[in-house]
Design goal:
The complex is a heterotrimer. Chain A is mostly helical. Chain A has 15 helices and two strands. Chain A has helices at residues 2-32, 40-58, 61-85, 90-109, 134-138, 143-161, 163-173, 175-180, 185-211, 225-235, 240-260, 269-273, 276-288, 293-301, 304-317; strands at residues 122-124, 140-142. Chain A has a two-stranded antiparallel ribbon. The longest helix of chain A is centred in the N-terminal third of the chain and has 31 residues, at 2-32. The radius of gyration of chain A is 21 Å and the shape is globular. The mean pLDDT of chain A is 91. Chain B is mainly α. Chain B has a domain at 61-270. Helices cover 75% and strands 0% of the residues of chain B. Chain B contains 14 helices and no strands. In chain B, helix 1 (2-31) runs antiparallel to helix 14 and helix 3 (51-76) crosses helix 8 (216-226). Chain B is globular and about 65 Å long. Chain C has three domains: 3-232, Rossmann fold, CATH 3.40.50; 250-326 and 403-503, 3-Layer(aba) Sandwich (Rossmann fold); 339-402, no CATH class. Helices cover 36% and strands 24% of the residues of chain C. Chain C is built from 18 helices and 21 strands. In chain C, strands 13, 16, 17, 18, 19, 20 and 21 form a seven-stranded mixed β-sheet that branches. In chain C, strands 6-7-8-3-9-10 form a six-stranded mixed β-sheet, sandwiched between helices. Chain C has a four-stranded antiparallel β-sheet with strand order 2-1-4-5, with helices on one face. In chain C, strand 11 and strand 12 (265-274) form a beta hairpin. Chain C is globular and about 70 Å long. Residues 497-504 of chain C have low confidence and may be disordered. Classes of the chains: A mainly alpha, B mainly alpha, C alpha/beta. Chain B binds chain C through residues 214-217, 219-220, 222-223, 226-227, 229-237, and chain C through 319-320, 323, 329, 331, 335-343, 347-348, 350-352, 355, 358-360, 401.
Chain lengths: 332, 346, 504
């Protein structure tokens, strides 16, 4: 019995990680092409609201997700236009968009706060869901969670195994060389940024129509997840598999926080909600600290064997961004 | 002659950006089912309708002025100090802490206030240095470090309000027990406006202006901001300057948070920073990091904030409209500026 | 394939890189394109390979107008280019580099690609390993990789831009053999270079570009003086070797210095540098000379031994301590590491000059900058932003920024991308510094420059460091061999003798 509860809890972890996976992989695509879309947090809030409202008005979750997808793509299109065509600072535009989209979500979503909406259902897969343990874990989920499993695999295969995916790696790594091999660098950047935005746009309604169904305005508890998504993209070293691992880890920790809350009396729930953020900082610290200059200096003092061992650990942890991330490309 | 023409052209583009922003927000208001003109009228009325409204706008102007001034220092050093929001919060926490510690002491109240304000500045400064250390020694980008620290600062406030500093009885969202009136910064009769606070805000801006325009320190910061590697090879201690710029910005942000306690709320409340840090980043971007424009633009932005407070009652609109207007404006200006550059290059 | 350029024009900002270029290249030949840096050679070749678009003009292939709008078009016509800095993806494997850009199905056949790679490689006797990472390969190997890639794409016109820069003598020999073979098989090879001897040794015919214009053409036998005249407009003689102004006073002493990079290890470097002396560091890119130079500036941490500057042990200290002891470092990348884009010349002088008080005295600073600008004949104003200056003027600015009292000047590629006049000027200024007692250590890929200006030469080969060689007793051939890893036993034997002599 106890085991069953834990199993259902873990299945819930897989489901609640699904939107994070969509958004992280979306951002991974954009950044792999060389564009940082910093608007994720705002986009997720705006699409959560827009998808929810659209689903309520049309009584169709499909329309809700479509609206999320379109809104996310449009915001990304704005990022692409200003950073690729106008060569504005990607950070500046992303920041303004993330703030504006958030306020827009609260402003336009105001009349719909607390309204009862629609949500997507769990669809157990026949036969497979009867497998002990794995059945409960993997095959009694909703459609979007199934899609998140598929997305991880497809994104990984696309980036590392297919011809266009290898070119995508090249575009983010060294656009001049990609151009030299016949790629239209800026067109590819547009495509992947908008595609990435669309995936982020789907992640919003995944909250408002499933994981945290409904729209609660400023207390929806979604503000901040977009920033975690950006951090997991870094932690994931722009690799969908490692990113998915990060997303599941995040969801697992959140669930543990909830489960342990009764035990940790005296800590207000708001404090537990902020727990992911120190973790985010620590994680980024681990994947980046190997590059710090003072680490070099300290290492130089160590005996050769120890030094080599530590350097190897840092190199394994390290997450190296695409070399041309954030730099515009212009053909002369 | 040609110079003049260019100036008019620039003005034309900037006007275009403002019109574009107005158009966008009007569409958004229409989408929310309200008449845009009424909404704008209500905003103006809310910000300037009564003497009280004007005073409130000026009260809100001070922290934004301070946060933006501080941010100009970090921007000069090429840093995105998004953690400024948390630095304001730490300013409030430290000030509250000092006041709580000393409120029953025999020290003269004015002295306690000064100590509390200094403590608040220090709190903001240290929190900023933390983000700086994470960046310079840990390789954690200041955007993520700062943002994480903001969320930590917020939950720290809540923990304090519901935990160690809770009101006698039960902690509540209304904040800690208010301080006695003797520990309030003197205000204008009948208003919440403190001349002291306004003076401090203006002095801060002037100091920053001269620091960045005329001193060796300012020029070195700019060098570090534009090319840290070359600045280092030219003999400038780069990471020290980065940390120093974080610290300076944190001092100003801490002062803002401190004044929120001693001049405005007289206690620690959950959302003590009111988003002025995030807003300061928007202001700085809109004015292209030129200290000269901080005062008017910051004033306009807080007028929108204060003006929007009555929106839910008057028009059943959410007060986040101010954020939508501010965001659209910054976005429109950035994009129109980008388009102008692109056209001129051709 | 016969290639014909008709009236090609291309302008970058205010620079006219190609002006009415008009000539043709017959099929199956090795065509040399000669000219000094900035003559417009690369621009013309990038236009032919579709990498950039011309402002006007046409290219005819076998008498038919070709529409080359991007590199993919050029490849379709069978034209491929090997850029000076090979355009590859450093963190990826050679095989991935080989495959990216090759059209085909969604899932590329890796095994087939590897087979093709190995087949072509063996056919040309190359040594690249398909599974090694590009960032661990030498420039020569990266060139081989690019040539293999172009071959696989079915290219029949090979453009090579300055391929002999940064590779060893051995690799050059190998490259020339390959190019001849390509031409013998009916391919056209376009060989772009500013090195007379390379062009003369290899090419069936040559055109010369000067300041964006076609200056002339020639077929063998080559008249070297005439070629030089076409290149420079007038015959330029390198100045006389300047005498060594070394004294006995030691500036820098390296004792058993060891440096670790994740790619190479340098061990047991011993060196004594005297006041007024110039030491050239030669070697292929990434052979260790960059590391040692930076270690002398405190920019790279040593893991063993001592670095002593002016009698003071600075081992393990940071760059700023080295600077306080009169050491300065001038990086190769001017706008990335040397100057600060966004700041004016004047602001640079303020930053490096004397600073009294808190506030900047702008007027005084401006007149100081004005003086320096005329002293170093920098084409610019105190208010000019450094990124708006030409490469030569940026280098002059960097030089003008050097403090007055310096004891050790470390230079990375001091004349990279400069025309011959600027080069001579820069070196005259540097030699003035030596006369005042400064010692100079510099890196250059150009062996002629090293022999011309150094008193002693140190050669690097994948982390091995030669003893200092007397510049008057060595020559380009010997240096070329050493750079390629040949002839090392010989110099060490000599060194042994030298050491034992000194011991007696």
């Amino acid at each position: 019995m106890e085991n069953e509860v834990i199993l259902i809890g873990l299945a819930g972890v897989l489901a609640s990680a699904a939107p994070v996976i969509f958004a992280t992989i979306g951002e991974t695509f954009a950044e792999r092409s060389g564009v940082v879309n910093l608007s994720v947090n705002g986009t997720m809030l705006l699409t959560a609201m827009a998808g929810f409202v659209a689903a309520v008005l049309t009584k169709s979750v499909v329309v809700g997700f479509l609206v999320g997808l379109i809104v996310g793509a449009l915001v990304a299109l704005l990022v692409a236009f200003s950073s690729i065509t106008l060569k504005l600072s990607q950070v500046a535009v992303g920041y303004v968009l993330t703030m504006t989209c958030r306020d827009l979500a609260y402003f336009l979503g105001n009349p719909y706060v607390g309204i009862e909406g629609v949500r997507i259902n769990v669809v157990p897969i026949p036969v497979l869901s009867d497998i002990p343990i794995l059945g409960t874990l993997l095959f009694k989920q909703d459609v979007m969670t199934y899609l998140s499993f598929i997305l991880i695999v497809v994104a990984y295969v696309w980036i590392f195994k297919t011809r266009p995916g290898m070119m995508l790696q090249g575009v983010g790594e060294r656009p001049a060389a990609a151009h030299n091999r016949g790629a239209n660098v800026n067109r590819l950047r547009y495509i992947y940024t908008v595609l990435g935005g669309a995936l982020v746009g789907i992640s919003g309604p995944m909250y408002s129509l499933s994981v945290k169904a409904g729209w609660q305005g400023t207390i929806s508890g979604l503000d901040g997840i977009g920033w975690i998504v950006l951090a997991i993209t870094i932690f994931g070293a722009w690799n969908p598999l490692r990113a998915a691992f990060g997303a599941y880890l995040f969801a697992l920790l959140q669930w543990l926080g909830l489960v342990l809350q009764p035990v940790l009396t005296g800590i207000p729930s708001q404090v537990l909600q902020a727990a992911p953020f120190p973790l985010m900082i620590l994680t980024l610290l681990f994947v980046n600290i190997g590059d710090a200059e003072w680490v070099d200096r300290v290492l130089a003092q160590l005996p050769e064997g120890t030094r080599r061992a530590i350097v190897r650990i840092f190199r394994a942890l390290r997450s190296q961004p695409p070399a041309a991330l954030g730099t515009p490309f212009e053909r002369q | 002659m040609q110079h003049n023409e260019k100036r008019w052209q620039n003005l034309g583009f900037q006007l275009g950006a403002v019109v574009l922003a107005l158009l966008l927000t009007s569409l958004v208001i229409l989408a929310a089912g309200a008449p845009p003109l009424d909404a704008y009228k209500q905003l103006l009325k809310g910000a300037f309708g009564t003497k009280m409204n004007v005073a409130d706008t000026v009260v809100a102007w001070v922290p934004l002025l301070l946060a933006t001034s501080g941010l100009l220092v970090t921007f000069a050093a090429g840093l995105w100090n998004i953690g400024v929001e948390g630095q304001i919060i730490l300013g409030s926490i430290f000030t509250t802490g000092v006041l709580k510690l000393l409120q029953d002491s025999p020290l003269p109240p004015a002295f306690i206030i000064v100590l509390a304000v200094l403590g608040g500045m220090l709190g903001g400064g240290l929190w900023a240095v933390l983000a700086g250390v994470l960046k310079t020694f840990g390789g954690v980008n200041e955007i993520f470090g700062g943002l994480g620290l903001n969320f930590i600062a917020t939950s720290m406030t809540i923990w304090l309000i519901f935990g160690p500093w809770k009101r006698p009885g039960v902690g509540s969202m209304s904040g800690t027990e208010p301080f006695p009136e003797s520990l309030w910064l003197p205000t204008l009769p009948g208003l919440r406006l403190s001349i002291w606070a306004v003076m401090l805000g203006i002095i801060a801006l002037v100091v920053i202006y001269f620091l960045l325009q005329g001193t060796y320190f300012g020029l070195k910061l700019k060098a570090v901001g534009n090319n840290p590697r070359a600045a280092f090879l030219l003999g400038i201690p780069t990471w020290q300057y980065m940390l120093l710029s974080f610290f300076l910005c944190g001092l100003f942000a801490g002062l803002a948070g401190s004044l929120q306690v001693v001049a405005v709320y007289h206690r620690l409340i959950p959302s003590i920073s009111s988003g002025y840090g995030y807003l300061g980043l928007m202001v700085a971007m809109l004015i292209n990091y030129q200290a000269f424009w901080v005062a008017p633009v910051a004033f306009f932005f807080v007028a929108l904030n204060i003006g929007s407070i009555q929106l839910p009652i008057a028009l059943k609109l959410d007060s986040s409209l101010s954020g939508v207007i501010q965001g659209s404006l910054v976005l429109a200006v950035l994009v129109v500026e980008g388009i102008r550059h692109r056209l001129l290059r051709k | 394939m016969e290639i014909e350029f008709r009236n090609i024009n291309k302008t970058f900002g205010t620079v006219r890189a190609n002006i009415g270029i008009h000539f043709s290249i017959p099929a199956g030949t090795i065509q040399g394109i000669l000219g000094e840096n900035g003559a417009g050679k690369s621009t013309l070749m990038k236009i032919l390979s579709g990498y950039i678009l011309p402002d006007s003009g046409e290219i005819y292939l076998d008498g038919e107008l070709a529409k080359i709008e991007n590199p993919a078009d050029a490849i379709r016509y069978g034209i491929g280019m090997l850029h000076q800095d090979p355009l590859d993806f450093p963190p990826m494997k050679a095989l991935d580099n080989f495959m990216i850009g090759k059209p085909g199905s969604l899932f590329p056949a890796r095994r087939e690609a590897e087979r093709a790679f190995l087949e072509l490689r063996d056919q040309f006797g190359f040594t690249v390993d398909p599974n090694s990472y590009v960032d661990s390969m030498t420039v020569g190997e990266r060139q081989q990789l690019e040539i293999l890639r172009l071959l696989w794409l079915g290219v029949r016109v090979f453009i090579l831009d300055e391929p002999t820069t940064g590779i060893s003598a051995q690799q050059k020999e190998k490259l020339f053999l390959t190019l001849r073979r390509l031409a013998d098989n009916g391919n056209t090879v376009v060989f772009v270079s500013h090195k007379l001897e390379d062009v003369e040794a290899l090419c069936d015919r040559v055109v010369v570009l000067r300041r964006g214009e076609l200056a002339g053409q020639m077929t063998p036998p080559y008249d070297t003086d005439r070629l030089i005249e076409m290149m420079f407009g007038k015959v330029i003689k390198l100045d006389e070797r300047l005498p060594c102004s070394a004294t006995d006073q030691l500036v820098l002493r390296l004792q058993n210095v060891a440096i670790d990079d994740y790619r190479l290890q340098i061990r047991n470097v011993n060196l004594e540098v005297r006041c007024g002396e110039v030491i050239g560091l030669a070697g292929m890119e990434g052979s260790g000379q960059e590391l040692l130079l930076r270690a002398c500036a405190g920019l790279v941490r040593t893991v063993g031994g001592r670095v002593i500057v002016n009698g003071k042990d600075l081992t393990g200290k940071d760059t700023h301590s080295f600077m306080r002891h009169g050491v300065t470092f001038m990086p190769a990348s001017r706008l990335e590491e040397g100057l600060i884009p966004g700041l004016s010349i004047n602001e640079h002088f303020i930053l490096t000059g004397e600073q009294k008080g808190v506030f900047i005295k702008r007027d005084k600073a401006k007149s100081y900058s004005q003086n320096k600008i005329s002293e170093y004949s920098i084409r610019g104003f105190p208010e000019s932003r450094v990124e708006a200056l030409s490469g030569g003027n940026q280098q002059r600015t960097l030089l003008a920024l050097l403090k007055e009292e310096l004891s050790l000047i470390l230079l990375e590629h001091p004349t990279r991308g400069l025309d011959i006049e600027s080069t001579i000027y820069i070196w005259s200024k540097l030699k003035e510094r030596c006369a005042k007692g400064a010692a100079i250590l510099f890196i250059s890929p150009d062996l002629e420059e090293i022999l011309q200006y150094s008193d002693r030469v140190i050669v690097f080969f994948s982390g091995r460091v030669s003893p200092p060689l007397d510049a008057t007793l060595t020559n380009v051939d010997q240096l070329g061999q050493l750079i390629g890893g040949k002839g090392w036993e010989e110099i060490f034997e000599k060194e042994q003798v030298g050491v034992s002599n000194a011991a007696q």
